[in-house]
Amino acid sequence: GAVVSQHPSWVICKSGTSVKIECRSLDFQATTMFWYRQFPKQSLMLMATSNEGSKATYEQGVEKDKFLINHASLTLSTLTVTSAHPEDSSFYICSARDGGDSQPQHFGDGTRLSIL
Amino acid sequence: GQNIDQPTEMTATEGAIVQINCTYQTSGFNGLFWYQQHAGEAPTFLSYNVLDGLEEKGRFSSFLSRSKGYSYLLLKELQMKDSASYLCAVRDGDYKLSFGAGTTVTVRA
């Protein structure tokens, strides 16, 4: 149980392109999902908390206009990197909780984004 | 911000035991997690401690001391497939997860 699916797994695109990443909870409903970014050999950094039916909560230093988050249903959250540039190249990972705050987060397989 | 420290690298022999330490300083505490992450993949959940003491799960055990801000992950009977990065993550008073930089464990034959 507690499977989180993330799509696509790998994206290579030109600078200036907008890229959408989907995160789905397959066998449970998630009112809260999380988006992380991980640069090579560094730890996961929380970008934002996605709340179903309301606006996402962004961490300090993360531009909300650049990283658009939509959580329209209990099983789907999307992250759109708008006008992506080479410095946005990173490993983006989503996670979701199956239940309340005390439950562990389960991670998607991640999306490797490369901007040329 | 939160401060989570763990060693960068550890090497051990197949069949041996390795202990990965993690110390933390956070605003509030709502549990400590250990995740395993293979290169290029997402983290997978290993263990969770919220009370002091040892949690055992097969070959993996995790210990927590809240008063000392300290945890360790113990890997027994190491196998080659255990070569990975091990992430210590602490959930703070706002239920946000903060991750350590990870400990890369290399298992040698």
How would you characterize this protein structure?
The complex is a heterodimer of chains A (116) and B (109). Chain A is mostly beta strands and 116 residues long. Chain A has no helices and eleven strands. In chain A, the strands form two sheets. In chain A, strands 2, 4, 5, 6, 9, 10 and 11 form a seven-stranded mixed sheet that branches. In chain A, strands 1-3-8-7 form a four-stranded antiparallel sheet, with no helix packed on it. Chain A is globular. Chain B has strands at 3-5, 9-13, 18-25, 32-37, 44-49, 53-57, 60-65, 70-75, 84-91, 97-99, 103-108. In chain B, the strands form two sheets. In chain B, strands 2, 4, 5, 9, 10 and 11 form a six-stranded mixed sheet that branches. A five-stranded antiparallel sheet of chain B has the order 1-3-8-7-6, with no helix packed on it. The mean pLDDT of chain B is 94. Classes of the chains: A mainly beta (116), B mainly beta (109). Chain A binds chain B through residues 6, 34, 42-46, 49, 91, 93, 101-102, 104-110, 112, and chain B through 30-31, 33, 35, 40-45, 48, 50, 87, 95-102.
Low-confidence stretches of chain B: none
Judged by helices, strands and strand pairing, the structural class of chain B is mainly beta
In round numbers, the mean pLDDT of chain A is 91
Shape of chain B: globular
Describe the sheet with the most strands of chain B: 6 strands, mixed
Oligomer: heterodimer
The end-to-end span of chain A amounts to 37 Å
Low-confidence stretches of chain A: none
Indicate the percent of residues in helices of chain B.
under 10%
Sketch the topology of chain A as an H/E string, one letter per element.
EEEEEEEEEEE
Average pLDDT metric of chain B: 94
Strand content of chain B: over 45%
The radius of gyration over CA of chain B amounts to 13 Å
**Biggest beta sheet summary of chain A:** 7 strands, mixed
Between the first and last Cα atoms of chain B, what is the distance in angstroms? 40 Å
Order of helices and strands of chain B: EEEEEEEEEEE
Largest interface: A-B, 20 and 21 residues
Helix count, DSSP H or I runs of 4 or more residues of chain A: 0
